[in-house]
């Protein structure tokens, strides 16, 4: 099975405000892409477009298996997503949050898997506590558990280490390394160190400047 | 797909039972509205026809105060992305619809109970017609409210927008349900209300099909 994630001339604007233009990439299994840029450069907007949460103003994102396009409505099966603006259900426990996700996704024999994932993100001992009582770092770990539950082909991380302690940061690096080998990893960050998680980098500021220069010419 | 719809329904039900996000507000709303009606009409003898209209006024505004919360609470708490990344849009829609159906049947039960206890002149002769009007009217209300809730969830002025947008769409349903309730008071048989039944059934299915087709566009972005 050959999986590919392709971005073709992606452009996004909100009204008159152009966020980015001419974003192109082609990723296969075993590749990774970092999206860099200053605050407000459109990193989160771009990862949302890649995950199918937003539509581009022009251009397209293509998920394909063996050359066949995957319907956008099915993208969620292939995507794992971690971001600061992704919220979990406060009134449920950590375990319940993942269990709900497993049931909605229609996963089978998920109980063992949930326990494994909770151990991986070091939340097993606090699995029966309400998320309301979690620290921001614990919530971030739980987001990783939710993102990894279905073993996604494409793992998208927006500000991957925000709110995490040094042990959590190590966990993210290990997860990123594993994903880079077995799937596709996309990281949006403005931390220069985190850019090293990936093989390729798209800098949205540089891209914008390039487009501006072309227009001036 | 059915398993996922059921999972979303159960999540909403469990969440509601824990947070009482809509339930408490709904119960209080019904109690306050019926009390207001009683105070406003103290000493007056209201006809059964007028009471059947007022019954649907109470049901309509109760629904407006509670049914939008399935989507609005997801938007307010920022959990929309959690759902967007876990299932197809249609699965989310039907899960939420199922929850709203249960909620509206609960509201209807509570309103009718309170109504029977407080409104002396409200005497139903054909219970089968009355029950069918309540069930089909409730189904229509839930289906419309669910899709409108999804539309207004992203707006800043959700509270005002919801009843304003819903009212014109719900008008044919409300008129038919009120007529049918009046017929149940007059003692009409189910066969005599066949025209009303057709309208209520058609309304429900048209709204469901339109919502199914539109929801993909509403849900993302």
**Spatial ordering of strands, largest sheet of chain A:** 6-7-8-3-9
Q: Tally the helices of chain B: what do you get?
A: 9
* Largest two-chain interface: A-B, 26 and 27 residues
| Helix segment tally of chain A | 6
Low-confidence stretches of chain A: none
Radius of gyration of chain B: 18 Å
H/E series of chain A: EEEHEEEHHHEHEEH
- The span between the termini of chain A is 44 Å
The class by helix and strand makeup of chain B works out as mainly alpha
Number of DSSP E strands of chain A: 9
Detailed description of the structure:
The complex is a heterodimer of chains A (217) and B (221). With 217 residues, chain A is an alpha/beta fold. Chain A has helices spanning 43-51, 94-105, 110-120, 136-148, 166-182, 204-216; strands at 3-14, 17-28, 31-36, 58-65, 68-69, 79-82, 154-158, 184-188, 200-203. Chain A starts with a strand and ends with a helix. Chain B has 221 residues and is mostly helical. In chain B, 81% of the residues lie in helices and 0% in strands. Chain B has 9 helices and no strands. The chains are: A alpha/beta (217), B mainly alpha (221). The A-B interface holds A 51-55, 73-74, 76, 79, 81, 83, 85-92, 100-101, 103-106, 146 and B 1, 3-4, 7-8, 10-11, 14-15, 18-19, 77-79, 81-89, 91, 216, 220-221.
Give the helices and strands, then pairings:
The complex is a heterodimer of chains A (217) and B (221).
Chain A: E1 3-14, E2 17-28, E3 31-36, H1 43-51, E4 58-65, E5 68-69, E6 79-82, H2 94-105, H3 110-120, H4 136-148, E7 154-158, H5 166-182, E8 184-188, E9 200-203, H6 204-216
Parallel strand pairs in A: 3-8, 3-9, 6-7, 7-8
Antiparallel strand pairs in A: 1-2, 1-4, 4-5
Helix pairs in contact in A: 2-3
Chain B: H1 2-19, H2 23-40, H3 48-66, H4 69-77, H5 80-84, H6 89-118, H7 127-152, H8 158-186, H9 194-219
